[in-house]
Here is the input.
Amino acid sequence: MKISRIVGAITFSLFSVSAAADPDPHALVKESLGKLVSAAAISVDIAVAEEAVLSQGLKIRTLREGSAMLNRGGGFRFARKGALVDQVVSYDGKNVYGIGHNAKVFVSAPVSGSNDEVMDVLTEEAGAYLPGRDLFYADAPEELLAEVLESHYLGVAPVNGAGCHYVVVRGPEVDWHLWVNEKDMLPCKYLITSKWMAGAPEFEMTFSNWNLNPKMDASTFVLSPPAGYAVGKFVDMQPKY
Here is the structure.
């Protein structure tokens, strides 16, 4: 065999191995979020970076610390704290609660249903805000991949010092990105771009301290009204830009 043919054969072989080595982006999403779905309980810390476009066209980016706890048997708690907001939203299986520290508002109302049903009611009807809830639904992998126009695997990228598989997905209304820790396959970062909104604002969450077996009891998700707080609604807890 001629040298040129040998070189060509080696080059083709290396290219084929490289191409075959790229993971399937859908499989990565399903494996990563599948670990959350199969966990009986979850807790995680979340750093939130949220953009908003003001009426005059100015785009602002707010940074917040947050956390999420969820019991698949029934119950969840979301918290976020920043310059414009400091609040907690919780569900104990029988009641929903909210504490807005900046507005000094306490919310409590009886409700029943699965975690997924209550998260929908809180966000769609009550005006509550649950950062990262997309990843905590019982059907999260299927729901996120339901209306995919295209998806890509873009290699391994560092997130807070950890190597993470980088997946980008294009949808009809939003594009979203997921970084998956290559060691434990848990989400490192999740970013959403609302591409058809003015200014294409982004919502980004970076995760740390995942625990798929946290200790919880009946009181974990029960909130009590702080002294001097007025009774209000979830919309009263939202920040005023």
Summary: The first helix runs from residue 3 to 21.
